[in-house]
Amino acid sequence: VILLATYNGQDFLHEQLRSLRNQTDVNWVLVVRDDHSTDATPEVIDAFARSCPPGQVVRIPSGEKRLGAVENFVTLLREAPLGARYAFCDQDDIWFPDKLARASRLLGCHDPNIPALYCARQTVVSRDLREIGLSPAAPRRPSLRNALVQNIAVGCTVVMNETARQAFLAVPPPPESFHDWWCYLVTTATGGRVVFDTSPVMHYRQHGSNVVGMQPDLRARVLNAAARGPAIFMQRVVAQAEELLKHPNLTSDARALLQNISSLRTASLIDKMKSCRRAGIYRQSRLEDAALYAWIVSWHFHLAFSKKGSVSTGPAHGKGERA
Prior knowledge:
- There is one protein chain.
- The protein is α/β, with parallel strands linked by helices.
- The protein has helices at about 15-20, 40-50, 70-80, 100-105, 145, 160-170, 180-190, 220-230, 230-245, 250-260, 270-280, 285-315, and strands at about 1-5, 30-35, 55-60, 85-90, 95, 115-125, 130-135, 160, 195-205.
């Protein structure tokens, strides 16, 4: 079951739909929800549906308002027909012909009663399909300890089994999260399996309208992260841990890890560092690990400064802004 979220995608959608038609060795159904496009996207989808066998393209009603990319995908996953596997699909990429077959083959090695998620690398291209480079590798083992502080499951490559879908829908992602990162978190927190395919399976089109961009170059990613600062990232990490603690099917190890992370907001700097060491969190390179701990230190002082500022400038009994 391919889950396609669209919004004003007429410039690229033809090529993506063509790549779906060219998938080999896989039977598929396309489920689409358009998020109130103002261009010809609905007409493109209608034309594609007419060219397919009856029932192969299923339209989910758009409803009364725009949902945004994350909630659009969550809605698709919730409303999709029961199927063996579910694949997220962006409107502006181009899948290689064996993308779904590779995912099906690798997911087929796992017990269907255990959550399982497939993800892969991408070939990053420009708007006009000029190759820029490969998306980052993931040399370290996928796990909750990685998922807590980094997402390696890029949504347009994600394929999950029915058990992972049910785990995802048991507790939807918080507003601070992304649907693909939440998939990685929930799958690992509930004792599932994550398969990271080191071979690229698609052209990831990089252009000015991407909701979330992709930087193959480590230096560029570091500079972008530095420009954003630590507060937004660390706030998201803690918020995701707090929300995931509500999940009914956590492993005991996952619950302990999540409690460690959820306590970071109010902990002292020393206790923050101890909690992270005890949790064993890691990113996909030692340089990124060092940057993570630097961000934790910076975030701590950001919180302290914000609290001090709220006391000195705000009402005597007022609350400071949440950092």
